[in-house]
Automatic annotation (TrEMBL):
Keywords: Disulfide bond, EGF-like domain, Glycoprotein, Phosphoprotein, Receptor, Signal. InterPro entries: Bulb-type_lectin_dom, Bulb-type_lectin_dom_sf, EGF, Pan_app, S_locus_glycoprot_dom. Pfam families: B_lectin, PAN_2, S_locus_glycop. The lineage of its organism: Eukaryota, Viridiplantae, Streptophyta, Embryophyta, Tracheophyta. This is non-specific serine/threonine protein kinase. Residues 244-281 form the EGF-like domain. Its EC number is 2.7.11.1. It comes from the Eukaryota. Residues 1-18 form the signal peptide. Residues 19-141 form the Bulb-type lectin domain.
Length: 420
């Protein structure tokens, strides 16, 4: 794997006799550690769980139990305590076994430096230009790459996805300026989250606003995401929240063009307005995976008769086949959708300050979820016949309560109608 976490070391030119550095003429042996200047990060050898194999890893010194955040030789363990870490004259770190064979190296392309040293950093800075992702351990005893990977998917509008092998397990979703649309309920007042998206790079980061609290996100061997906190007083990590707690977290649990809702952990699925179950018999048996299909196809030759139904508090659909624009307003976004026969829905890209930007989906809408609060508004495209039918349903409901008020539906640009 090409993602080497170089927040571990800073390769510098110069000389140093500090105990927190490794120079060309030194070696780091088993039972020795490199510790950052602030005493926060340690680099050394360890054996996980009940294993006797040895690994070169990085951990934080100020929390208990020891939490390893990176392993160099995770797929090539040392069989004994004879491993050695060295720094060559080109500034490359090499891990050697008892037969003096290199089993891991940092393998960076750098300009030649004079008298390089390896120095653990407190800051967490790292080298850019590499793909980085979270990969679960195989087990608590084996840090080799496990079944689960969590990474940013760059297809369409970038989004956070968790994979189990080649298959999508769950989707954290895209960034809307405040939070990831799939995880709005885990927003913390002590965490400042950011997703940076530009022409050069895409990455997620977070800062802990309270200096007395230390935060860790862990992808367990079973694929569960865990948020763990500890304080400077307790120095013991505690799980404060976990993901994947109900069936709606499973990717596309309800199939296409449907919304998953969870009440007490039990999931139910509902087709979008204007859509019907693809396999009604299966759907009525709560077998929802085949999803829903349009009841009536749009007359694309006269798309001005199409309109939109508004859904609120949603996890937005999978954005892997989406299109986005940062400068459009919501009305421009709606018009752009109407110009494309394949456009199925639109939404704001950023919900801050009343909403900005445009996000378009095409053909099918996959992996939506209803939240009781939070979430985002999504505008679903439907033909005019569905808008009239929806208006009639609303009118019938109002008549039952003794009020006759009929929503106005335009013949060309029908107004958005809302479903909370």
């Amino acid at each position: 794997m090409s993602c080497i976490w170089f927040f571990l070391f800073s390769i510098m030119s110069g000389t140093s006799t500090s105990l927190d550095t490794l120079t060309v003429d030194q070696s780091l042996h088993d039972e020795q550690t490199l510790v950052s200047e602030g005493g926060i990060i340690a680099v050394g050898f360890f054996s996980p769980g009940n294993s006797t194999r040895r690994y070169l890893g990085v951990w934080y010194t100020n929390i208990s139990p020891i939490t390893v955040v990176w392993v160099a030789n995770r797929n090539k363990p040392l069989q004994n305590t004879k491993g050695v870490l060295k720094l060559n004259e080109n500034g490359t770190l090499e891990l050697l076994n008892d037969r003096n064979i290199t089993i891991w190296s940092s393998n960076i392309s750098t300009k030649a430096v004079n008298n390089p040293v390896a120095h653990p950093l407190d800051s967490g800075n790292f080298v850019t230009g590499l793909e980085r992702y979270l990969s679960s351990w195989r087990s608590v005893d084996d840090p080799a790459e496990g079944e689960y990977v969590q990474k940013i998917d760059l297809r369409g509008y970038p989004q956070l996805i968790k994979f189990k092998g080649p298959h999508i397990k769950s989707r954290g979703g895209s960034w809307n300026g405040l939070y990831l649309v799939g995880y709005p309920d885990v927003v913390s007042p002590i965490i400042l989250e950011k997703v940076i998206i530009n022409e050069k790079e895409v990455y997620y980061e977070y800062d802990v606003l309270d200096p007395t609290i230390f935060a860790v996100y862990k992808l367990s061997a079973s694929g569960t995401g865990q948020n763990l906190y500890c304080t400077t007083q307790t120095k013991t990590l505690q799980v404060v929240s976990t993901g994947d707690e109900n069936q709606c977290e499973n990717y596309a649990f309800c199939g296409a063009n449907s919304i998953c809702s969870s009440d007490g952990g039990r999931a139910t699925c509902e087709c979008l307005r204007g859509y019907v179950p693809k396999l009604p018999d299966q759907w009525n048996k709560a077998v929802w995976f085949d999803g829903c299909v349009p009841r009536n196809k749009s007359n694309c030759k006269n798309s001005n008769t199409d309109g939109f139904l508004t859904y609120t508090h949603l996890k937005l659909p999978d954005t892997s086949s989406s299109w986005f624009n940062r400068t459009m307003n919501l009305d421009e976004c709606r018009k752009s959708c109407l110009k494309n026969c394949s456009c199925a829905a639109y939404a704001n890209l950023d919900i801050r300050d009343g909403g900005t930007g445009c996000l378009l989906w095409f053909n099918t809408l996959t992996d939506m979820r209803k939240f009781s609060e939070w979430g985002q508004a999504l505008y679903i495209r439907v033909p005019a016949s569905e808008l009239v039918d929806t208006a009639n349903r609303i009118s019938d409901q109002l008549v039952k309560f003794g009020k006759v008020r009929r929503p106005i539906v335009g013949t060309k640009f029908a107004p958005n109608q809302s479903f909370e």
